[in-house]
Amino acid sequence: MNPVLIEVLRGSSVESRHAGALAVVDASGAVHTALGDVERPVFPRSAVKLLQALPLVASGAAEAFALTDAELALACASHSGEPEHVATAAGVLAKLGLTVDALECGTQWPSREPVLRGMVARGEIATPLHNNCSGKHGGFLCLGCLMARHAGTEPAAFVHGYVAADHPVMREVSAALSAATGVDVERAPRGTDGCSIPTFALPLRSLALAFARAGTGQGLSEGHARAARRLRQAVAAAPFMVGGTDRFDTRLMQALGERLFCKVGAEGVYCAALPELGLGVALKVDDGAVRAAEAAMAAVAAALLQREDDELLQGYSHLPLRNWRGTLVGALRPAEALTRALAARR
Asked: What InterPro entries does the record point to (predicted)?
């Protein structure tokens, strides 16, 4: 049974407890910190978008289509569907000569409420460009269009069905995930992600290893190492694209730049690379609570980067809870098991 990572207080009493597991690993595979069952496979979902974007850069597709920092950052994003995100995703399709119909991620309304309300008030309709994964899928289409160019086939026909596990695009993406994690994903439990591509259940230890490798280049092929570095640089230059206004990932990477790459996944998963330390992080909150996963990730980042007094990180790891009148009614805090594990590795 996994230990409690985050406690929720109502007044001074514990109201809820969020159990989970945490793995911090270096690029050689040595375990820095392990808490809970780090060998149990979990679906990382969107937390691995950086890894899924490695073929986009390594193949030469990003260069062939002159992708900007913002466009590369969007390829690693779970964005809020704000106008800047939508315009950037549309710009990628324009470079490819494709229409929005080429995106196979599905239609999703913006997650940022003021944007959603504005669209409804104006009578606008959401499209796949608003989907939080539209940038990632734009990256897949770039890769597919380059493949079509090399094969001498028509791009729109070649990329059709790119979300299928046996499509050449998805085979490249899955191979990159296998190479980074050291796990043969073809033998891993498989599901279908919210954006329709395959998702694989992988151990937290292997996911942490992949992000240590992505942060250092060690253990990756030369092409994937260069790609990881380029993507991290792009995200540091355009962190808004990875999340959006007031989003955890965006705020942390705006503050820390290339010292930290972090990415949320659905159902309480977080992965991160800390290049200066040569470490990768992967955690999962068992009940899927993203708020608790953010608090745990903030506590881990504060401890590993020795920024325990950082107001931004403290604001998430010890998140104040207020009611609808603005009255302070409680807070989140790291549980003793998490605090001890992180203190032991200082």
From this structure: Asparaginase_II (IPR010349)
